[in-house]
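Exercise 7.
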Amino acid sequence: MNETEPRRCEGPQTWYEFSSKRAYHVPSWWNGTKYKDGPGGTMSVSVTKSGTISLEVAGSGEYSAGAILTKAKATISVKVTGTVSVTTGHTYTHEIKRDKYGHLQYGSWGYKVNWKRYRSVGNGCGAPHEIGHGSATLPTKETGWKYWETKS
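Solution. The predicted structure, written as tokens, is:
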């Protein structure tokens, strides 16, 4: 391109960007996947249940959950998915510390992200304009138990 030719831009378009990402255990909320036991002792669970863990997106302005999912697959992890169908047949045993209560929650090892959606203005050469933002909880197909302890 020589210097006398006009600059060519792609025209108006929209895109998503993620401003943060952290690993997150996306809990399954169906019956038979959350337990509490104690104080002290041994906690052992074995369950066969099936259900679905789904993508959750919240925000304001214009956005598409499907487009956020597509961008997340490309930039965060190809393992990210919109829904995970699980059948838990998973046995888990853990010692509970004395005077503590053990908790187990089944779910997907996914991500929590913050996102923004932008639109280019005019012929696409100018600065972009934010048209939406929010957060999303993204499950993956990696599932399992999360364990933690409390005083009560």
